[in-house]
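ARCHIVE CARD
Drawer: 12
Card no.: 0347
Subject: one protein chain, sequence and derived structure
Cross-reference: see card 0346
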Amino acid sequence: MAGRRCAALAFVLGAMPLSLPAQQSPETVETIPVEPVEDHDRGPAAFDDVVVYGSALAEPRYSQDSAQAATKTETPIIETPQSVSVISAARLEDLGALTLQEALRYSAGVRAGAYGFDTRGDFAMIRGTEFAQYQDGLRMLFGSYNNVRPDVYTLEGVTIVRGPSSVLYGQGPSGGMVNLTSKRPRVVPQHELRAEYGSYERRQIALDSTGPLTESGSLAYRMVALARQSDTQVDFVENDRWLAAPSLRWVPFGWLRWTVLGHFQKDESGSSTAFLPWEGTVQPNRNGQVPTNRFVSEPDFDRYDTEQQAVTSLLEIDLGARWRFHQNLRYSDSSSVYRSMFPNIYTGDPYLLNPLRRDSVLRVTYVRDSDVQALTADQRVTGRWQWGPVANLLLAGVDITHVRANEVMGQLDPLRIIAQGQFNLYEPEYGSFIVPEATPQPELTTRQTGYYLQNQLGIGEHLVVLAGARFDTTSSEEEGAPKIEDEQTSLRGGLLYRFDAGFAPYVSYAESFEPVADYDAEGNPFEPVIGRQMEAGVKYQPPGAQTLLTAAWFDIEEENRLAPGPTPAEQIQLGEARVRGFEFEATSTWRERLDLIATYTRLVDAYSDEGPNADGQRIKKLPAIADEQASLFGRLRFGLFGMPGFSVGAGVRYTGAIPDESQTVEVPSTTLFDAMAAFESEHWRVAVNGTNLEDEVVLSACLERGDCFYGARRSVVGSVAYRF
């Protein structure tokens, strides 16, 4: 028994990710009690406890070596024939990211905040497409405006996998996916109390506590909790949150590890997105520019409140002979209450501004309440074996998704919109509105089952070959309507050669498949979105250096791409879309004191036709896509007055001009500046983070249908953390 307990504890210690300050002197990491062992000849033999010492050498804060989300195996990034980035917990902290959208800002190929400042979700784009959001390897979002936003404080890190990932994950867009890794229990006790105060009266307190529950360390816990009250840059819109994320890890034997994650979250907010007209935003208006704080809904009516309860099980079993079994399982119950009003600036009577299109608008009143239950599971086995000079890493799995959604929806008809009266965008008067009658929608049930197989071959010491295939069956069934069923086979392949000097050129091909459980304005079901990508690139990781450089060229073709419809409540389906481009990303730690991130993205082609129902095929720009982006962030660590632990950082983000789909209007290019300063000791961390320091008024995008979106204004947040 003693041997089993020590082996299990050693396994946990070896697997857990230690995060220790740089340039720290050696310290005691853990004391392992050794139990007496019975010797039949000499009686009990007593041993002293084994004290394990460790020296926490400077670790790379930004350059990570592995990303399991890309292959579902422990394959180093340098050997993965695909563009992958890992945003570590340290990088999240340095950037002062308050949302996932902000965490993605300094990443190649990613346009964070594509549709402006929005309290409802994280609407970033990867390679010109919306991304699929996963957490701990399982899809987290189903549908729109019915889920809570993830909180960065609950995360160990974020992985960006660019390009199609359908072979491993099933339905998803062609541009890429983002996988969030939750904080998990650790054997070494670590505790943090944190307080924040910042712009727009942001007040937040948080707790993060972890450690063993048993003497042997076979059972460990973690509790992450926070409470926040905050206003936003938009009048009458709050951003309040209450969250608790308890978790347990059980390692009874060296061959079994089971982690259970709980997540309970409640958000209270409102409509920060105003859907403002071209006149007064991207085009001149006799009254000037519409203020960025303008609230176009009603204070006594507007709400965007969400709740979620979720339980996730992560099971890992070592089957022996270099085979492992993994099962990830989650059940989530999400609900939302959505009440909003937005300007009627779209085509057709009465969707017009006043005759001069200058100051007053009619407003749509919109009601949507959602309740979504989702069960997701992913079971897979991995095995390793050697055939002469060929090393095989086989992955085989099956995943299932079962989602049930219920909604109550309502919207004013045109005559009642007129009766509601006009709203002045420059001198608003609130209190005149009509609540639409909301009616229950038919229950929607969607199912997906996917079977996938992947093999990674290491030929000799340099050549890596990856091949994978998947077969999906999906169904969507709405009460009172015929069932919609689809089948799809997805393929993936890659070739990479790793030179001893650290260079690794690669080529890859991948496909995506995304069923759409929705209908167009005429009630016709949308077709599945099909994507294909070719990618060629090179990675460079100098031996022994804390540096990773990736350059990639990609060519994506999509069929049946979704795009914004004639009003915010509608979507349309395009025919064919194409996105081609180049990306570069570098992360490095120089002389253990300077951490750097540099990115550049260039899209040379991002167009589509108007879709299968259009009169003729006309080439159009894809919405909200910048042809060029670049960013640079650096953090310098230093000592002051004989005290180590100080650091300062600064960043710059450039986004090129963005035309609407018809190229009638153009959002101007922007250059924004960020900064941070921090002091860190054994027990304390005090920091200040600022974004958009010049408080630039930014337009994130304008759409052909006539509306524009403001980006985030300046935000400064101070934090104090006590660690013990």
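Annotation on reverse: The domain at 68-723 is CATH 2.40.170.20 (Maltoporin; Chain A). The helical segments are 2-15, 68-71, 89-95, 100-103, 166-169, 414-420.
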